[in-house]
UniProtKB/TrEMBL annotation:
This is Uncharacterized protein. Its cofactor is pyridoxal 5'-phosphate. It comes from the Eukaryota. It holds the Pfam family Aminotran_3. PANTHER family: AMINOTRANSFERASE CLASS III (PTHR11986). One of its GO terms (molecular function) is identical protein binding. InterPro entries: Aminotrans_3, Class-III_PLP-dep_AT, PyrdxlP-dep_Trfase, PyrdxlP-dep_Trfase_major. Belongs to the class-III pyridoxal-phosphate-dependent aminotransferase family. Signal peptide: none annotated. It comes from Rotaria magnacalcarata.
Length: 81
């Protein structure tokens, strides 16, 4: 994101929020790589960008924990249920 998107397409100061799913739920069940969400949170925190996690398919205990983000030890700004 930092080396491609922010430098070639949209500067970080023009990004209000990033929305991602911790676990992709369409066509299977694919969790994010272990370092992806912590690194994304670091980028958001450093640039004043809101991190929104969509937990519609993975929240409310469907992964064994209340939220899938708990496996990644992050605290998003907003969780969509």
């Amino acid at each position: 994101i930092e080396n491609i998107v922010f430098k070639t397409t949209t500067p970080a100061e023009e990004v209000a929020a990033i929305v991602v799913e911790a676990v992709q739920g369409a066509g299977g069940y694919f969790p994010s790589p272990a370092s992806f969400l912590p690194e994304l949170q670091r980028i958001c925190n450093e640039n004043g960008i809101i991190l929104i996690i969509d937990e519609i398919h993975s929240g409310m205990g469907r992964t064994g924990k209340m939220f899938a983000t708990q496996y990644y030890d992050i605290e998003p700004d907003i969780i969509c249920l």
